[in-house]
């Protein structure tokens, strides 16, 4: 499984495989069963994660008790809930394993200490965060200016695996539509595909 991490790291560094292997020798990796809640909304985040395999759902529950899916984090993606801008430092989101997940688990309390021990980690982490933030900003702008049909088409182009990996009501929430609307959009897309073929 560490091969996934090493290949990802090599996008941000020119280190050799051997150097990457030495750097990741003591990286903590853990497996979590499907259904595990990694973080509850309202708790203080203490961990960050990198997905080697599996799918994590990031969501929040509003005051009426409705769940809103914010993101799905899958292979070669990382997640850290940043709360420094929150007055109480508590997480506005929950994180739940939709599948059995194999994750690199980082400890936020010792993050700075890890950077001091391995300065190359800090530079790589900064590059990774910059890439993630740029992607998130672009996707959010695209999401806000697109129709539900366009959002579904973008999902099918960029992350088609999600259609088969996550419950449809969660996928609909992620797209900002009702499950019924998602069902209609999928039917129209299938009809269009048949016509094109």
UniProtKB/TrEMBL annotation:
Record's keyword terms, sorted: Activator
Keyword Transferase: no
Protein's recorded name: Crp/Fnr family transcriptional regulator
Statement: the UniProt record of this protein carries the keyword Transmembrane: no
InterPro entries: cNMP-bd_dom, cNMP-bd_dom_sf, RmlC-like_jellyroll
Cyclic nucleotide-binding domain residues: 11-70
């Amino acid at each position: 499984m560490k091969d996934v991490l090493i290949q990802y790291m090599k996008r941000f560094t020119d280190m050799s495989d051997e150097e990457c292997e030495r750097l990741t020798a003591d990286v903590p990796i853990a497996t979590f069963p499907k259904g595990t809640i990694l973080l509850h909304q309202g708790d203080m985040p203490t961990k960050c994660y990198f997905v080697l395999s599996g799918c994590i759902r990031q969501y929040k529950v509003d005051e009426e008790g409705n769940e809103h899916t914010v993101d799905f984090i899958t292979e070669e993606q990382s997640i850290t809930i940043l709360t420094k801008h929150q007055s109480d430092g508590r997480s506005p989101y929950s994180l739940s394993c939709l599948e059995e997940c194999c994750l690199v688990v980082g400890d936020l309390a010792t993050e700075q200490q890890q950077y001091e021990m391995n300065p190359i980690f800090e530079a790589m982490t900064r590059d990774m965060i910059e890439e993630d933030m740029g992607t998130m900003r672009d996707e959010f702008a695209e999401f806000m200016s697109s129709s539900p049909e366009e959002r579904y088409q973008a999902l099918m182009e960029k992350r088609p695996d999600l259609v088969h990996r996550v419950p449809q009501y969660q996928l609909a929430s992620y797209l900002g539509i009702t499950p019924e609307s998602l069902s209609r959009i999928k039917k129209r897309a299938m009809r269009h595909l048949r016509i094109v073929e």
